[in-house]
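Incident review: delayed structure delivery

Summary: a single-chain prediction request sat in the queue longer than the usual turnaround. Root cause was a stuck worker, restarted by the on-call engineer. No data loss occurred. The affected request and its eventual output are reproduced below so the record is complete for anyone auditing the incident later.

Affected input:
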Amino acid sequence: MTEIKIYNTKARAKEVFAPIDPENVRLYVCGPTVYDRAHLGNARPVVVFDVLQRLLRHVYGADHVTYVRNFTDVDDKINATALSRKEAGAEGSLEELVHERSNETIAWYLKDMGALGAQEPDHMPRATEFIAPMISMIEDLIAKGHAYEAEGHVLFAVESYKNYGALSGRSVDDMIAGARVEVAPYKRNPMDFVLWKPSTDELPGWDSPWGRGRPGWHIECSAMSHDLLGASFDIHGGGNDLQFPHHENEIAQSKCAHPDADFARYWMHNEMLQVEGKKMSKSLGNFFTVRDLLDQGVPGEVIRFVFLGTHYRKPMDWTEKKRAEAEATLRKWRGLTAGIKPESRPSPTVVAVLADDLNTAGALTEMHKLAGAGEAATLLASARMVGLLGDDMGEWYQNDANYDSIQELVEELLVARTEARKAKDWPRADMLRDGFKSAGVKVTDTPDGPVWSVERDEIDSLPLFHAVRLAFGNGDNAELQRQLKQAKRAGVFFADSNQLDVSPAWRGLPDSDFVREKLTDLKNLLVLNS
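Output delivered after worker restart:
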């Protein structure tokens, strides 16, 4: 059996993974707070732990892994949307409207993550559906002296758990100094955190022994993981921004509620994401959601490939260069494996590299070697293990076949180009050169004659880019929509449609209708100038 090694945040070392029960390997990942679309950074842990669960299923068997990722649907932003809908006349209680809003955002999330090739977990619990287990755990913590009621709140007493801070490796004093600690007169200790808080009539709430209220954030995962995976399970994952306070608080709650259990034995945390070397921020104009990229024509498979190109414990930088390289590689690999039946097992070398602390970047390097050696069947099996080259992910590549429909038109124009060059009719040859370029068609001369391909970099995108910004600056919405549509047809997309004055633009492939239209214009122009 393949030996898996994992960097355990709790131990601050890479350890050999030994599951509690090889027949039921259990993984819990902190999921999103579903108040809106998932931004690109939200997607990184989804892809990281999707690859992990694929590896675990490969090693232990598809039916011997239980993967849980939760949804936090108790949140002030969700509450605000529900309240505004109720004030606008929507029927139902606040709790029902919160559920309705969460249904929308969860559907968005699953669709967007599915586009990145992420398989859905075995369980996707919602916080609002586990209120009773949360209340039960809180009651137990109070009874054991680890929590107390104060002014309608219930708080966890941090001093009651001597190992608090062990995961993040910081003392309580350091954590107080480095964190935003809510100052409240009812707290016994500044670090004590909320397990339950009261709800006003304008907020959703549930009946409890402490009055109508709602749970704190941290208790959610402790209750849901216990209910679905038990008091002890194998791996707990999430972004490294969750180490403190969220995961630290989870450990304290769970270990105090179940002192004889391990809670999570291995802790895995992924690093954060940047865009072109900078932190993603709306003020910098580099903030975008997964849906933004998908709508701009960036294939989900390409996004996934870029993510896999950086080890999960290193900061990941999303750049246009990486996107272009990822698409070029995938295009090559899909061409190489077209019509090929995959091997029954992935490359042992790829599996071994991946099993060494989920080294996806190293696994891709090994796949490049397979592609270079022409081992298409093994490449296909190996790529599919990490969620690439699947039939369900290849629609973007199949759509390129639409360019085949312009082949006859291109070849007719290539004949005209050859004739113009033989006749030394340079104005006509230049007209053809510029016409091909404006259509996104790259012509390369070879000893066997000219070959052509549709390329994103052939089209001069600056006029399109400036036309969009000009319309945006003038406040001419009709013209703006016209220019955005034209830019999209030409393969030019903008990261943030609400801030077009500062938004970066991305280049994608032009659609086939755009190419055909431009080439037809070129053909007509040649007739006029005959």
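Verification: Residues 5-270 form a domain with the Rossmann fold fold (CATH 3.40.50.620).
Action items: add queue-age alerting; document worker restart procedure.
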